[in-house]
Amino acid sequence: MGKLGDWTIWFGPYTPAQLVVIGGGAFALIKGYDWWSWAGPIPVGLWVGAVWAVRGAQIAGQNPFTAAFGALSLVMRHPAGRIGGRVAREKAPGVLRPRFVIQCAPALAAAAPVPVPVPAVPGARAGARVGALKPVPVAARAAGGSGLARLLAHAEQTERSAA
Question: Which residue of 6, 65, 69, 116 has the smallest Cβ count within 10 Å?
Fold first, then answer.
């Protein structure tokens, strides 16, 4: 920066930050001449010092303009963020209308396991096992329920009748 064709700016080349300070400072000094004219050359010296000070300016290892653009984009970003390049938005609220059906169950009381006493085993501790649950025969079960339950009940019934 600071070179146009064969012509080079005096004491150049300059960084973009220095060019901004040169331009902004010159504008401020010209517009505010009535305010600082009593101080003599001190404001001009401060301006030259500011141009020299920003020659290697870095903010978190970045050029000041890149850092300013990053901060500006962070401030301008939508609070919800982005998904797939689009602004993430919440779904519109909807009414939840759950429905359920209450049906009378088939006679399940007969299908419940019934405790049956187990004969004592020689050498076992006393009171170790009082009774075991044994399923009720298939004939006593209701054939209702899901298709799988009916299929299994039919398979057990066919197996018992074949035996």
Answer: 6
Residue-wise pLDDT tens digits, 124-141: 565 555 555 555 555 555
Q: Which amino acid belongs to residue 158?
A: T
- Integer Cα distance of 157 and 150 in angstroms: 10
The interaxial angle of helices 42-53 and 16-31, nearest 10 deg, is: 160
**Dihedrals phi, psi of 13, to nearest 5 degrees:** -75, 160
Q: Which amino acid is at 138?
A: V
Contact between 112 and 106 under an 8 Å Cβ cutoff? The reply is no
Q: Whole-model pTM?
A: 0.39
**17 within 8 A of 57, measured Cβ to Cβ:** yes
Nearest to 48 by CA among 27, 28, 21, 30: 21
Greater confidence, 37 or 24?
24
Q: CB–CB of 46/21 below 8 Å?
A: no
Contacts of 59 (CB under 8 A, 6+ apart): 67
Q: What is the tens place of the pLDDT at every residue in 91-107? A: 888 888 888 877 777 76
